[in-house]
From TrEMBL:
Organism (species): Rhizorhabdus histidinilytica
InterPro entries: Ala_DH/PNT_CS2, AlaDH/PNT_N, AlaDH/PNT_NAD(H)-bd, NAD(P)-bd_dom_sf
Listed name of the protein: proton-translocating NAD(P)(+) transhydrogenase
Enzyme Commission designation: 7.1.1.1
Gene3D superfamilies: NAD(P)-binding Rossmann-like Domain
Purpose: The transhydrogenation between NADH and NADP is coupled to respiration and ATP hydrolysis and functions as a proton pump across the membrane.
Molecular functions (GO terms): NADP binding; oxidoreductase activity; proton-translocating NAD(P)+ transhydrogenase activity
One GO BP annotation of this record: NADPH regeneration
Keyword Cytoplasm set for record: no
Family the entry assigns: Belongs to the AlaDH/PNT family.
Length: 373
């Protein structure tokens, strides 16, 4: 059983899908590890560190040769997988709804593509969840970026020269990233408020010392929502939410938006007209910029200024913390594969619940219900 760890090919991708720690652990399970030269560079891991952990470091062809499993942070180019065994597993964040052509190509080439972001939200799979591990870091970094771009301080300071007032931060979308953004903004001394469509988040917001701002006139999603996820809201709800945001946002200095709906474009939460009501020098970070954007005018990977307000469009935010992001991502992959490792067969054998949820392609076809349905 050979596992190949590729150097990420996507522009700006600094993470890596295995660390020396997980390499050692895979070897202890009985696997042989090949690591493409330079794979860990962006995450400050040297080739020698992988070698010391027991991996063979080589060029891409040597790494892929006879591989049974290919690991990636993002999906590798299907055309650049020559040498891997027929039917090899491609295990990575495959962004299936957006990268559908790539998924079709994995099928055509006979690979079994496993999309880690389709991991079901069940207790036993928590340690395998790349969305959680990466969103947590993204939420933290979003606040740091906002603080760096904000021309004022976050905490209230009483000085001999006068008082600096605390920044007001508003977090929209209180999933994993939003909760970490609240906690980080609080630690920096901001006055924090937050909103979500799921009623279960109200208590979580309060427990972090922030103020919940909720639409009360129209019912949101009671409890956690299906699988922990939100759905698209009714027109009536969206209208009530827009009114609520309009009255609240004009008083905010920092806004972090994180709202996502799986398989759909991110909901639009802030319009250009609402941005115009904010004080000049305020900062908005749109963590959903790559998924369609919560904020009108946000551009992934760029900072644009509208009405004197800086709008930071996030792009691969977790990747800017490449060492930690890689360590957590790699453990997610290890936790997943090791949980299903069959000692006798010396390979992982998936069960139905998780296998069916994450398997995109098999036997030359796309087989995943979320893509077919
Ligand atoms: P997400 O990234 O899909 O979305 C971010 C947040 O945006 C969510 O809280 C969502 O409700 C919110 N949102 C969507 N539309 C909105 C709108 N129009 N206005 C305001 N907010 C909106 O969510 P996530 O971070 O993946 O987490 C969702 C839930 O799943 C959380 O409760 C989390 O704790 C849970 N979870 C469970 C597991 C597990 O059990 N294995 C793993 C991860 C997360």
């Amino acid at each position: 059983m050979k596992i190949a760890v590729l150097r990420e090919a996507a522009a700006g991708e600094s993470r890596v899908s295995a660390t020396p720690e997980t390499v050692k652990k895979f070897i202890a399970l009985g696997a042989e590890l090949g690591v493409e030269r330079g794979a860990g560079e962006g995450a400050s891991i040297a080739d020698g560190d992988y070698e010391a952990a027991g991996a063979k470091v080589g060029d891409r062809a040597a790494t892929l040769k006879d591989a049974d499993i290919v690991l990636g942070v993002q999906g590798p180019d299907p055309e650049a997988l020559a040498g891997a065994k027929p039917g090899a597993w491609i295990v990575a964040g495959l962004n299936p709804f957006v990268e559908r052509t790539r998924v079709d190509a994995y099928a055509a080439k006979g690979f079994e593509a496993l999309a880690m972001e389709f991991m079901p939200r069940i207790t036993r799979a928590q340690s395998m969840d790349i969305l959680s591990s990466q969103s947590n870091l993204a939420g933290y970094k979003a606040v740091l970026l906002a603080a760096a771009e904000y021309g004022r301080a976050f905490p209230m300071m009483m000085t001999a020269a006068g008082t600096v007032s605390a920044a007001r931060a508003f977090i929209m979308g209180v999933g994993v990233a939003g909760l970490q953004a609240i906690a980080t903004a609080r630690r920096l001394g901001a006055q924090v408020s937050a909103t979500d469509v799921r009623s279960a988040t109200k208590e979580q917001i309060q427990s972090l010392g922030a103020k919940p701002i909720f639409v009360e006139s129209v019912a949101g999603i009671e409890g956690e929502g299906s699988g922990g996820y939100a759905t698209e809201m009714s027109e009536e709800y969206q209208k009530a939410q827009a009114e609520l945001v309009s009255s609240h946002i004009a008083k905010q200095d920092i806004v972090i938006t994180t709202a996502l709906i799986p398989g759909r474009p991110a909901p639009r939460l802030i319009s250009d007209a609402q941005i115009a009501t904010m004080r000049a020098g305020s900062v908005i970070v749109d963590l959903a910029a790559e998924s369609g954007g919560n904020v009108e005018g946000a551009v992934p990977g760029e900072t644009v200024v509208r009405h004197g307000v800086k709008i930071i469009g996030a792009k691969n935010m977790a990747g800017t913390l490449a060492a930690d992001a890689s360590a957590l991502f790699s453990r997610n992959l290890y936790n997943f594969l090791s949980a299903f490792w069959d000692k006798e067969a010396n390979k992982p054998i998936l069960d139905e619940e998780i296998g069916d949820a994450i398997r995109l392609t098999q036997g030359g076809k796309v087989v995943n219900q979320r893509l077919l349905g």
